[in-house]
Amino acid sequence: LVALAAFICFAASGAHGAYTALAGMETVITVLFLLLYLLRLDARMRFVFWPLADIFNSVIAALFLLVVALFAIIIKTNKGTLAGGVLGLILLVLCIVDVVLLCKKISLDKARGRSAPAK
């Protein structure tokens, strides 16, 4: 929802196309990951380790959001761009939280296969 709100702020304010494109892209990718997990498609498509793909997406998004949100806040051509920049920084924090939680989930899961400890 934060990505969608940032996208709407950037689009309504007539901000630079890169701001709008990044917020829109992150909105679409987030919705796709949400659908993937809600429809349990991750269990059907086992050839991709989806938590790692989600971590990779969040790290790349956080890097891009850092740059774009800071530029939007520094330049602040109007209030919509400023609001989009602030929402971008909030989204940046949420991406970092997502990475931390997914890393904990991956490292705390039981070992699989031959490397499992004997009982």
Automatic annotation (TrEMBL):
<keyword id="KW-1133">Transmembrane helix</keyword>
<feature type="signal peptide">
    <location>
        <begin position="1"/>
        <end position="17"/>
    </location>
</feature>
<keyword id="KW-0732">Signal</keyword>
<feature type="transmembrane region" description="Helical">
    <location>
        <begin position="55"/>
        <end position="75"/>
    </location>
</feature>
<keyword id="KW-0812">Transmembrane</keyword>
<dbReference type="InterPro" id="IPR008253">
    <property type="entry name" value="Marvel"/>
</dbReference>
<feature type="domain" description="MARVEL">
    <location>
        <begin position="1"/>
        <end position="107"/>
    </location>
</feature>
<dbReference type="GO" id="GO:0016020">
    <property type="term" value="C:membrane"/>
</dbReference>
<keyword id="KW-0472">Membrane</keyword>
<feature type="transmembrane region" description="Helical">
    <location>
        <begin position="81"/>
        <end position="103"/>
    </location>
</feature>
<protein>
    <submittedName>
        <fullName>CKLF factor</fullName>
    </submittedName>
</protein>
<dbReference type="InterPro" id="IPR050578">
    <property type="entry name" value="MARVEL-CKLF_proteins"/>
</dbReference>
